[in-house]
Amino acid sequence: MVNKLKLINEMAVNNGTKIVLLVMDGLGGLPLEPGGLTELETARTPNMDALTARAALGLSDVVAPAFSPGSGPGHMALFGYDPLETLIGRGVLEALGIGFHLQPEDVAIRANFCTLDGDGNITDRRAGRIPTEECAKRVEILRQIQIPGVQVYVEPVKEYRFVLVLRGPGLEANIPDNDPQLTGVPPLAIQAEDAGSEKTAAILRQWWAEANKLLAAHPPANSCLLRGISKDPGVPRFPEVYKMRSAAVAVYPMYKGVARLVGMDVIEHSAETPAEEFEVVRQHWDEYDFFFVHIKKTDSYGEDGKFAERAHVIETVDEALPTLLGLKPDVLIITGDHSTPAKMKRHSWHTVPVLLASENARFGKPGKFGESACLTGTLGHIRHVDLLPLALAHAERLGKYGA
């Protein structure tokens, strides 16, 4: 089987063209009623709509039909790494996202503070989205826990999220989440899926039991759920594979983590809004060939079932878009890492709308950027893993294959 990344590397050329990948997290949506509009179709997006006159539109499967992807696989696919071949745990991404210096043998866990009732059932998987300062206070409490024979690191991330890292000999990470992804039920048991991971599972069971004792007096974050238990597998470096100086502009640590994992520079900034993030890109425009720009709230509001708020975030992105357009990127891709319809309140398997704007695009019929228009767009039905190669081709950064 041909190694696709190796082939792309052999064909890639550095011609100075610029590519922007704008990711509105969880962009794909659903109508609330049959025959209605999705969040993207509901949003007023005159700038994106105008782009359709010089863009190819399409729909993309993140992993494969019927698979509801996590954010890690979604972004790895967007960066051209097949998520069926390269599965990166959320723990690694969160740890790298906050700048934690993972060692090769470390096991990293992304954790959510949550709320349990008196019967031990989950009533809120995100503890009411407690603010980051409350997260930090509880992390300080959890740092009291010591486990013989292993170093334990606990670091706050953002809002209800924190990172747990175990460092010691003989640790493996083939352990499922103890988050059942449901409310009204207890957390799952922490069980290893192979003998090599049993030591890690035993440590986590002990740590989690101690954590519950310490957190019991601190509602709404009176427990925690352990997710994405993982080690850094090592992947080919994005700048070397694609021969592009590459940078990420993101607010949430997890997305900084996935960028660091593949070797992108993460631009440090204090931006919070789409307009502020786009200004960061403008300030660093001459330093890089490729920019990954991440917008989080489209996903958060989807998980909370807030249809109108999702549409409003999309509108704020559109309002700020002239900053990016004024930079005249050779290729601009607007898409999501997966779908998070407010109707479902979770990640879903639905295809994600894609807009690829370039002077080299096969233009379709101008109109409204949304799922319905993308269904008949000239880009067709593709996979996320093919978007980055398509961006390279439209930027004339890929040579000819074969004689």
Describe this structure in words.
With 403 residues, the protein is an alpha/beta fold. It has 2 domains: 8-88 and 235-394, Alkaline Phosphatase, subunit A, CATH 3.40.720; 94-230, Alpha-Beta Plaits, CATH 3.30.70. Helix content is 31%, strand content 18%. It contains 14 helices and 13 strands. The strands form 2 sheets. An 8-stranded mixed β-sheet has the order 9-8-10-1-11-12-2-13, with helices on both faces. Strands 3, 4, 5, 6 and 7 form a 5-stranded antiparallel β-sheet that branches. A hairpin with a 4-residue loop joins strand 5 and strand 6.
Using DSSP, what is the number of strands? 13
Largest sheet: 8 strands, mixed
Q: In the CATH classification, which architecture of the largest domain applies?
A: 3-Layer(aba) Sandwich
Secondary structure: helix percent? 25-40%
Strand content: 15-25%
Explain briefly what this protein structure is.
The protein has 403 residues and is of the alpha/beta class. The chain has helices spanning 4-11, 39-42, 46-51, 71-78, 90-97, 132-142, 198-215, 238-242, 253-261, 274-283, 297-303, 307-325, 371-375, 387-394; strands spanning 19-24, 55-61, 107-116, 122-124, 151-156, 161-167, 223-230, 246-249, 265-266, 290-295, 331-335, 352-357, 380-383. The mean pLDDT is 95.
